[in-house]
Write a structure and sequence with these properties.
heterodimer, A: 131 residues, alpha/beta, five-stranded parallel β-sheet, 5 strands, B: 311 residues, Rossmann fold
């Protein structure tokens, strides 16, 4: 068996809607990945420390509170400060189309909005992790 | 700087990366440990085990906080099962440890079992050594939820805490022959629920049957979510440590564990070697065919391989 991809599924922000995160966590697991799931309301500091200690190749964040433009770039920048910008950062949740170019500009590799098949996110990760 | 130098200088990324190498069987992890082997042995290793849902993660979180309050540094290895069908895993022990994520004195690593039975992953022991070299004072190993025979933790930890809860009832009877024997300290978690006293009595009765050992495992009642009883539990773990250290049992326990680990390491290597050698002087596949066609029996085939290898 190939070495499994390790991915952190994190929920930053103050909303309590973790159904999307749980669905994606299961889909990743069923695709043979090791999914570290840390629960609700994570600060960027918690997400970055966890990503480093767990040595993940991907950080997948889900957010439904509207704070994505604020929180996603903070995580990207903090990873960069820790010289961990080889970690692929992707996002999902209720994110308006108009916000997506700005988020990509800030270093988020891809945004998956509601309705995206989980297989698409899995394929994107497999194609884009740095190995 | 090399990974080895970075590890010694306290670089968390280097520690994490070496653990990944250990999990993926890259030789770099063992190479670094070989170089730094004299730095191992300083950490005290505590196993946290028990059935699923007993509260192992929450208890680990609270014990870690109690040790941090005493100025100790802590490493945690939390093992969860890997799906045998997809190879994937959801590693969720961190959900109960959120306050620890940004504590610089704590390092947490989640591991999937990756097909290894026994309640731990194959890389757990190597990960413990890396945390030990890194300089952690205490290392917790949280096993998968155990049932009957996941007793590897006893070969890896200095003290094993068996976490139970009220309402297991006759289940304690059912599991006592297997995993109940490995507890050095018992914790009855969720002790605010009905039946905690009964659970305690059942454990006492079980321990009474084994009176001739020097250390009688104490039983702590705790409510981990309320942080109640944690100091008492920690004190009992420390007492076990003092007992091991003062009786010389710690040295012999570690010696015993080292021997078991060495034997299983050799076993793995020998099997690997035999399978690699297969094809030149003898062929495992051809012997299997002979066994299937009844030209040879399986015992003679095994002896045949050993005879060829010894030459």
């Amino acid at each position: 068996m190939d070495k499994p991809i390790r991915v952190l599924v994190a929920k930053p922000g103050l909303d309590g809607h973790d159904r999307g995160a749980k669905v994606i966590a299961r889909a990743f697991r069923d695709a043979g990945m090791e999914v570290i799931y840390t629960g609700l309301r994570q600060t960027p500091e918690q997400i970055v420390e966890t990503a480093i200690q767990e040595d993940v190749e991907v950080v997948a964040m889900s957010i439904l509170s509207g704070a994505h433009n604020h929180l996603f770039p903070i995580v990207v920048n903090m990873l960069k400060e820790r010289e961990a910008d080889d970690i692929l950062v992707v996002g999902g949740g209720v994110i308006p189309d108009d916000d997506i170019p700005g988020l990509k500009e800030a270093g988020v590799a891809e945004i998956f909005t509601p309705g995206t098949p989980t297989s698409q996110a899995i394929e994107f990760i497999k194609q884009n992790i740095k190995r | 700087m090399s990974l080895q130098e970075r590890l010694v200088s306290g670089d968390v990324r280097a520690l994490a990366r070496l653990m990944t190498y250990a999990e993926n069987d890259y030789p770099e992890a063992t190479r670094v440990i070989k170089e730094l082997y004299d730095k191992t042995g300083g950490a005290y290793v505590i196993g946290i085990t028990g059935p699923p849902g007993a509260g192992k993660s929450t208890l680990t979180d609270k014990l870690t906080k109690a040790l941090r309050a005493r100025g100790k540094t802590v490493g945690i290895i939390a093992v969860d099962p890997t799906s045998p069908f997809t190879g994937g895993a959801i590693l969720g022990d961190r959900i109960r440890m959120q306050d620890l994520f940004t504590d610089q004195g704590v390092f947490i690593r989640s591991m999937g079992t990756r097909g290894h039975l026994g309640g731990l992953s194959r890389a757990t022991q190597t990960a413990v050594r890396l945390l030990d070299i890194f300089g952690k004072d205490y290392i917790f190993i949280e096993t998968v939820g155990v049932g009957q025979s996941e007793v590897d933790i006893v070969k890896t930890a200095d003290s094993v805490v068996m976490v139970l809860m009220p309402g297991l009832g006759d289940d304690i009877q059912a599991i006592k022959a297997g995993i109940m024997e490995i507890g050095d300290v018992f914790a009855i978690n969720k002790a605010d629920l009905d039946g905690a006293d009964r659970t305690k009595i059942e454990i006492e009765m079980m321990l009474d049957l084994n009176e001739n050992r020097e250390w009688r495992p104490p039983i702590s009642k705790v409510v981990a979510v309320d942080n109640s009883g944690i100091d008492d539990l920690l004190e009992r773990i420390q007492n076990h440590r003092y007992y091991l250290e003062s009786s010389g049992e710690l040295v012999s326990r570690r010696l015993r564990n080292t021997k078991q680990e060495l034997v299983s390491l050799i076993r793995d290597r020998v099997v690997e070697f035999i399978l690699e050698e297969s094809g030149e002087r003898f062929s495992v596949d051809r012997l299997v065919e002979s066994i299937a066609s009844k030209d040879m029996d399986i015992y003679t085939a095994a002896e045949e391989i050993l005879r060829k290898i010894k030459k």
